[in-house]
Amino acid sequence: MRLDKYLKNSRLIKRRTVAKEACEGEKVYLNGKLAKPSAEVKVGDIIEIVFGEKRIKAEITDISDNVSKASAREMYKLI
Question: Which residues contact 36 (CB under 8 A, 6 or more apart)?
Answer without folding.
Answer: 3, 23, 24
